[in-house]
Amino acid sequence: MKMWLGKKIIFLQTLLCFSIVGTNSHGLKEYHFVLKEAHYRRLCSSKPILTVNGQFPGPTVRAYYGETIYVNVHNKGKYNITLHWHGVKQPRNPWSDGPEYITQCPIKPGGKFRQMLIFSIEEGTIWWHAHSDWARATVHGAIYIYPRKGESYPFPTPDEEVPIVLGEWWKSDVSDVYEEFLRNGGSPNESDAITINGQPGDLYPCSKSETFKLNVHYGKTYHLRMVNAAMNLVLFFAVSKHNLTVVGVDSAYSKPLTRDYICIAPGQTADVLLHANQEPNDYYMAARAYSSALGVAFNNGITTARIHYHENHAPNKSPSLPYLPLYNDTKAVFDYYVSIKGLNEADPYQVPTNITTHMLTTLSINTFPCPENQTCAGPNGTRLASSVNNISFENPTIDILEAYYYHIKGVYHKGLPKFPPLKFDFNAEYLPLELQIPKKGTKVAVIKFGSTVELVFQGTNLVTGIDHPMHLHGTSFFAVGYGFGNFDKHKDRKTYNLIDPPLMNTILVPKNGWASIRSVVCALPSRPPPLLGHGDCVYCDEWGRRC
Predict the structure, then answer these.
(1) Less Cβ around it within 10 Å: N or C end of the chain?
(2) Per-residue model confidence as pLDDT tens for the chain (547 residues)
């Protein structure tokens, strides 16, 4: 049996705070993103893929701490699309955040949209990606945010910076993969390759000549700006015979952590230092998936890239692979995550201790009965689904942000439960089948301005237990705790790290376990800006376009 998690947790983002480039006549930095198809050859065959400016991965966006930039998006593709700036807080500017039907209607084919990116407390590496269907498989890129001009990193300045974007490649058209599993109610076919900077690596057929190579000089330090752009794969990453020093996660600096491997979940980013201090030779960097769910198919291949020392040496035609934990080594994953500590002096906020709003949300794989006269590929002929507190999200026809701002009724409903409406042993081995069927709805949890929030994500064993990567838009949060089994508020809060937890925007919730985060609600929405190419109207037609 194959499974897929398509998780959406909807808070009304307006109430949460937390290429081609140039400058315009006012001195503001502008990027121009053109969505268009381009042909790429991988794994012995070619196919057209959707790209930004013909690049895969897409162009890197660069900014300084606190800077505001603009991105002019022109959709020359075949489908509606939006772009999300993953980890950009966008204070008082949710209108440019990007998730379709949440903060905006999609950009129709031929349409344009001007997005304003307001960088506030971010510093380090984050990323951008499409936020429509599965377009982000090829439409994504890194964002580098540098310290304020004249200021330095909280670590010795590296000699060079290098993007390391981890992803996946399908021989089939990604939209066909997406449409097939929507049609049959099963899970998507697993990818044909994992990639590093768009390349499968020389362990895959027809890939050796194009394998990404990082040329290094002995004694120098390289800043790896890492992004996990894979659709649903948690990945281990390592470099043979070299240690890696993590100095930041999700655009917030952390205390230096030196390991022989790192773990990075979908949507997460990391700032990692690689010291070229080994015997001059060729070495592999490599990544492979972590998957603890029973009976869930996944890509178990290994992607590679090469590190080549400039200094003279006899070429090493067959470098050894680095140590990577076993695919189901849960201990290796969470030993790594709990070892990441925040850099207190760099954090603009202290960890909230006076909590005014408590929330506990269950994260479940679910099923719906197969409609009449259809054949479904989910367990026992059902259709797979997912839920938050037993609510399976339904897309509205008008984006929620504008419905909220303009008081349009009937688009969404308040009342996303703050605690599980169904209480049971969430991680029991056997659970009643009737618990597998969730309710459908477009619900939001509205949180008061100034609230301090503790949110516990609780995994369940409905259908099957899996790890859940969870991302909150418009905010960063302190990752204060992880655990296994059912969360116990009396016992588990005693294990929290309230001294130096990392500041993150994406957290991995363990299979049949929990993860706890804390944050502060501190921004209200500004008036919506003029929308280039869309006029001033609110409603969307049946194609998701503004009227």
Answers:
(1) C
(2) 333 333 433 333 333 333 455 555 455 789 999 999 999 999 999 999 999 999 999 999 999 999 999 999 999 999 999 999 999 999 889 999 999 999 999 999 999 999 999 999 999 999 999 999 999 999 999 999 999 999 999 999 999 999 999 999 999 999 999 999 999 999 999 999 999 999 999 999 999 999 999 999 999 999 999 999 999 999 999 999 999 999 999 999 999 999 999 999 999 999 999 999 999 999 999 999 999 888 888 999 999 999 999 987 776 678 999 999 999 999 999 999 999 999 875 455 689 999 999 999 999 999 999 999 999 999 999 999 999 999 999 999 899 999 999 999 999 999 999 999 989 999 999 999 889 999 999 999 999 888 999 999 999 999 999 999 999 998 999 999 999 999 999 999 999 999 999 999 999 999 999 999 999 877 555 556 544 333 333 333 333 333 3
Correct CATH for 347-521 of 3.90.1720.10, 1.10.287.950, 2.60.40.420, 3.40.1190.10: 2.60.40.420
Q: Is the dihedral of CA 93, 102, 21, 153 positive or negative?
A: positive
pTM: 0.92
Distances, alpha carbon 516 to alpha carbons 74, 510, 519, in Å: 39, 11, 10
CA distance 204 to 202: 5
CA distance 265 to 233: 7
Does domain 155-340 match CATH 2.60.40.420? yes
Nearest to 299, CA basis, from 288, 309, 308: 288
Burial class of residue 46 in the structure, from the number of CB atoms within 10 Å of its CB (0-12 exposed, 13-18 middle, 19+ buried): exposed
